[in-house]
Amino acid sequence: MPHPLTAQTRRRLLGATLAGVIAAPLMMGAAAHAADAYPSKPTTILVGFSAGGAVDNVARQLGHGLGAAFGQTYVIENRAGATGTIAAEAASRAQPDGYTLLLGTQSTMVVAPGMYPSLRFDPIKDFVPVSLVASVPLVLVVHPSLPLKTVQDVIAYAKEKNGELTYASSGLGGPQHVSMELFNSMAGVKMVHVPYRGEANAITDVLGNQVPLMFSNLPTLLPHIKSGKLRAIAVSGLERSPTAPEIPTVAESGLKGFEALTWFGLYAPQGTPDAVVKKLESGVKTALADPATRTKMGEQGMKIEGRDSAAFKQYMQTESVKWGDLVRKSGIKSE
């Protein structure tokens, strides 16, 4: 039989309950005030790649736009290495107050988890997706000395070479690498991966026909395509690129549903107040609506996405399954 509560115990319980009732609105009020005040000081956007690259360029354009929208400073901090995971780990451990953010890519957030078994962050559990900012298609190119003009030509040639055809990429697990592995998987062929230290080195050897073909970002390869030094086969988006509408998509060329994009998204550490996330989401929308930003990104061959937090979260889940499965099936592992 339970002991009856003493008068002293009842008073303590009542006091604790009243304290909780009083404290809850105060805490909610403090959180709301913090969100209203955000940003009241400079914010850092971590980037997992070197300055001057595509990810860094997007981060700087976005940071400039957010700064203009909020009247505050957004500082870009480059922490390059390990497919962007060094920066992502640092961002995942940051104070969840909106003042440390991550400009992440598909390589870091959906490919790396399958490559690095000892990864010390979970892209799904440790981050709040704020907004999918932009994306850029890749293009499959071949050296013009090869008698290949279509996706079906490439597939037939790869089968003829019976596993001896090589392709270049900017490095293990990068978009160029996984795009070709997706192509291999969907086309039922096998090509040998030749990884390079960076996109420029890979392109140099394809231009010299040391390696006959590769996927790489369309804006980077477009000058070589226009000069005739490389032949474009197909782009990796579901739709043709406005930058080069004459190039067909892989999907329309026989591999239905093929899509592989380089994308860039803004993330906050898990636990960041919803009101701050919403404010950031609104700031990104404002930044991407700026005509100068739209023009500059368009000139770089980028598609402005601007998907909100909910849509970006759903996209992340879909991409994680898609590329996680591919990494496992292809046996892609970190060096």
UniProtKB/TrEMBL annotation:
- UniProt KW keywords: Signal
Keyword DNA repair among UniProt keywords: no
**Pfam families this protein is in?**
TctC
- InterPro entries in the cross-refs: BUG, Bug_dom1, TAT_signal
Q: Which PROSITE patterns match?
A: TAT
Annotated Gene3D superfamilies: Bordetella uptake gene, domain 1, Periplasmic binding protein-like II
Signal peptide range? 1-34
Q: Which family does it belong to?
A: Belongs to the UPF0065 (bug) family.
Report what the protein is called: LacI family transcriptional regulator
What organism does this protein naturally occur in? Bordetella genomosp. 5
- Phylogenetic placement of the source organism: Bacteria, Pseudomonadati, Pseudomonadota, Betaproteobacteria, Burkholderiales
